[in-house]
Amino acid sequence: MDCLPQAQDDARIVMLIDDEPAQGRLITAIAARDGWRTIVAPDAETAIAMLGTREGMQLSAILLDQWVPGDDACALIAELKSRRPALPILMLTTSASPLLAVEAMRAGASDYLVKPVSPDRLMEALRSVTQREAPRDELAPLTEKMAAHLDFDAMIGTAPSFRAALAQAAKAARGHGHVLIEGESGTGKEMLMRAMHGASPRAKESLRIINLASVPPGSIDSVLFGHEPGSFPGAFDRQIGAFQHCDGGTLILDEIDRLTPALQQRLAEALETGIIRPVGASYGFRVDVRLLVTSNVGLDRMVEAGQFDAGLAARLGATRIVLPPLRERTGDIPALARHFLARIGEQPGLNHLSVSDGALALLAAYDWPGNVRQLQSVLFRAAVYCEGNSLTADSFPQLSEMLGEQTGGGAGHSHEGVGIMLYTPDGNLRPLEEIEADVIRLAIGHYRGRMTEVARRLGIGRSTLYRKLSDLGIDNAA
């Protein structure tokens, strides 16, 4: 029958190296929902021994909790990779240290997940490192390595749709109304909300961020509104909810589209009355909380499909900001790349790197389904393995392999603005002389030093071109 579950023998197998039974059960259950079978090794010795078993030979990935080997985590990763070089390894840890990420990756880790990790993030990482039709290492979502800046100046981009969204957010930040930010995953919604809180009248008050996708559905009610002792099995103590914690401040709810219909109605009632009622309580109390919420999908479409409460959507979306995907602002990729590389160079164990025009052209040719977050991850990985002072197209071998000839100017990819920055980091236009010099350098590289062709394409004479080279201090051999 078509509805029969996948046979266990056909399931992909992941080895979890973890000595904590509760986490083992949780990860086993999460992985099973996506067709994975989990085998658990409680220590390093057992894990190495299991590689030689029948199940061990069929492994598709390894999940390693850093606490099991402790300071020897990187040594264990290297040992596992020496025995099974093609087997992807993902490390789970509570540390957000960039240095640990660098060491783990250089030892052979494919990804690095900071706990607590949401079910969706875990499965995204497993799928990324095991899909054969996509680049397996270079595009893995290494997103937890660097803390995000919290102001509008860190939001890099000059595309009109992006600047319009930032202007709308900056204006909304000065008010007190709720704000809805929509956009694909990885476009920078949470970062924008943090910037809005930092620029708001509530900047010095409480801020709490809750990713609703990472909270078990049965716990969201209690997390938001709190609960009384005995209100449900296991509720031994009173819990204060996020709304009460943030009274007078800001509550950020990431992925509001994940709320169940019952919780949507409960939240809509709370926003309408301003009164919060903990689970199991016979009383309520008034709070003053500003909500900033995100959605990966358009709430209007969900309302039309009967999947989201219309009243709640209207209340949340009184101010609605839409962040464009990166593929719609490829001209921002050079500035973003340089910005990320500057931040990456500040991390322990990494160097300050430049990026070539060829590398920028390659990056601009990709569609970036993971958006800005994925671009940062790709640059971080390339920087980890870079042995020189600059990233080139050769620094992204899997990306080059996947795109093939498309990077040579194939249809469907825009290279507008590649290698040319129009704005300074403070948002002002660069001097015209500097922009002109960049355009000439780009043209010389694009036409491989054929100066007659460069002059013709720029619409100037050869003598004028050579005069500009001299005036601008450009070496045409470079």
Short description, anyone?
With 478 residues, the chain is α/β, with parallel strands linked by helices.
Structure description:
The chain has 478 residues and is of the alpha/beta class. Among the domains are: 8-130, Rossmann fold (3-Layer(aba) Sandwich); 160-322, Rossmann fold; 431-478, Arc Repressor Mutant, subunit A, CATH 1.10.10. Helix content is 40%, strand content 12%. It has 19 helices and 14 strands. The strands form four sheets. It has a five-stranded parallel β-sheet with strand order 2-1-3-4-5, sandwiched between helices. Strand 4, helix 4 and strand 5 (111-114) form a beta-alpha-beta unit. Helix 6 packs parallel to helix 7 and helix 13 crosses helix 15. It is flat. The termini are far apart. Mean pLDDT is 82; it is low at 1-9, 132-136 and 405-419.
